[in-house]
Design brief:
- This protein folds into two domains: 166 residues, P-loop containing nucleotide triphosphate hydrolases (Rossmann fold); 113 residues, K homology (KH) domain (GMP Synthetase, Chain A, domain 3), CATH 3.30.300.20.
- The chain contains nine helices and nine strands.
- Helix 6 runs antiparallel to helix 8.
Amino acid sequence: MTDTPFKSGFVAVFGRPNVGKSTLLNAILDEKLAIVSPRPNTTRRQQLGIHTADNAQVVFIDTPGINRPRQQMDKFMAASADRALNEAHALLWVVDVSQRPGGGDRFIARRIAETLDEKPAIIAMNKMDLLKPEHVIANTAAYAELMPHAKWMLTTATRKDNLDQLLSMLTDALPEGALIYEEDLYTTSSVRDMAAELIRESALEILREEIPHGLAVQIEEFDESEAPRLTRINAVLYVEQDRHRKIVIGKKGEMLKKIGTVSRKKIEALLDGKLYLELFVKVLSEWRNKEKSVRDMGYRIEDI
């Protein structure tokens, strides 16, 4: 009797906004990795989430959405998604099975089918708890038809329904191989980058529809010299218009104070220590459509 071979590899994760992609990834990892927001293009860069078990190491590449590039920022995101598609050993497409496929779903399915039909693919038909019994057959069949070569599994990320089965399917799709990363690592993202993302998530949560997608966060100071007792972070929230700056700050600074309070709790949980956080708001007009500004924000194609 031979031992079960160890498997390892990369899985690119795709899905249109609000299908639960980030929630699903966080649930699988049992860690806070991807920021969660119903807004389109919340995920801007690749993040690696690493799940290690006795028989496999599955490295998830959380990718920006597959969109038609319109701005310089879109070009960075498209390049990031393309690299993930090309380098992954398998694909995980997350959809909202409680609804029939929309234009965004069909666009993703065509994009993948055009170039990567030969790669193993699994569809996580998420939000099964919202799927009406009379729609089960029609909705699951509609998604399966968009990607005929893919296997699929019904899931609910918020309740972790069928995530073990989903992981088993993904493991089966990977090649045999050794550990890619140390077994106690769950991401390669730096704490500094994760802190910036948590601040952006908090701002998106609190501001809701008042601020469009042109919100970026840049850490200007990250001082761990007193850690774990205290970490100091100074961060700038960039917006594209002066009226947006006023909204972010709020009356007598109340909105910015609220963003800071929510952000601090999240980052302290990440650091497992106390945090002194200071936030500033600056205007950088149309930064998403200027190559230099996009690069200055840290979105560089050569770094993907």
